[in-house]
Known about the structure:
mainly alpha
Amino acid sequence: MGHRLTQIATRTGDAGTTGLGNNQRVSKNSLRVHAMGDVDELNSNLGLLLTEPLPDDVRALLQRIQHELFNLGGELSVPGYQLLQTDAVLALDEALAHYNARLPRLQEFILPGGSRAAALAHVCRTVARRAERSLVALGQEEAIHDAPRQYLNRLSDLLFVLARVLNRAAGGDDVYWQSERLQQQGD
């Protein structure tokens, strides 16, 4: 593939519009641009998570996911184009089952936290949920494929599970929510 970017500061967006991959100009506040931005933010947060010490298998999985998210961004940048396939969703399902099988069953809600890597995985999870909501909103206005929405849904679940895995890899455990109701029952 040849070089695609020849100039970064084009000034073509100064009026509040941006160009899509099909050369169409749209408002930077459009639902499509919001979805693209949320996916980009998720990918950037995964990049931050990847700077942490991680088990090799988790690192390889997250790196693959980054490439798939970049594909998703490309798909969103060209209305009607399909790049992310259902096999990517199935691969997340498999990873989710694999990592969740290693974990103890949850008895209580957990709080985002524990190790730094786990906390960053929780941040990625919440951004994935927002990106999913952005895709749902876009899908209510324009036709979009199912795989991207399903992918983000599974990814947010996987990131929750990976946060638990990462806490254990760091020698810790989940941070459990201590509700007032539960504390009163124990008294």
